[in-house]
Specification:
mainly alpha; 66% helix
Length: 193
């Protein structure tokens, strides 16, 4: 049986983890690193330009002797390592760490979201969409995974599927920052045929 100290530390970890992932993925959504271009007939939104100029998190340099994900047991440390590799755009190493986290907790929607986005950046979009679909099946009210799903679908050219995912994200909470990001992406899509 776990004591209150353990559960408090887990709650703090989850909050910090969520904020870190939001900070890292927000910048990646804005930069659109796989293509870095707007859709034909669209322009970048001034809000997107403002977000790009906002201060970015500069992660500490990774240690050269970082242990492999299979040798680390602490989920907090595995998560920290995954986030560092993701933020330094070492997506293949980040994917290994996210996969290790999924071995510990296969139903963690935040990790499925992060792994899905990481796989997409590795050019493995089919796998990315599978991981994102798993996350949506586990928690269809998770707004971030719908945003990521819309982003990946858009990058793959599935505009109508992207529109559906982004609309779902907005429907969960239009006033949240994620909902506003989804609305901006949706506004930049070409009109439906």
């Amino acid at each position: 049986m776990r004591d209150a100290k353990f559960w408090i530390s887990m709650a703090v970890f989850q909050l910090a983890f969520g904020m870190i992932i939001f900070a890292f993925t927000r910048q990646h959504y804005i930069e659109l690193p796989t293509t870095d271009r707007a859709l034909p007939g669209t322009t970048r939104n001034s809000t997107m330009d403002w977000l790009e100029s906002a201060s970015a998190i500069t992660p500490p340099l990774l240690e050269s002797a970082t242990p492999s994900p299979s040798t680390i047991e602490d989920p907090i440390e595995i998560s920290r390592q995954a986030d560092e590799y993701f933020s330094s755009k070492d997506y293949s190493t980040a994917a290994m760490y996210y996969e290790r986290l999924l071995m510990i907790d296969p139903s963690n929607v935040d990790v499925l979201n992060n792994l899905g986005l990481t796989l997409h950046y590795l050019g493995r979009s089919t796998e990315a969409l599978q991981k994102l679909a798993e996350g949506v099946a586990i928690d269809p009210t998770n707004q971030r995974i719908w945003l990521t799903l819309g982003f990946v679908r858009l990058q793959n050219g599935s505009i109508e599927d992207a529109r559906a995912a982004l609309t779902t994200a907005i429907g969960i909470s239009a006033d949240s920052q994620i909902g506003q990001s989804a609305a901006e992406m949706l506004d930049n899509l070409p009109p439906p045929e």
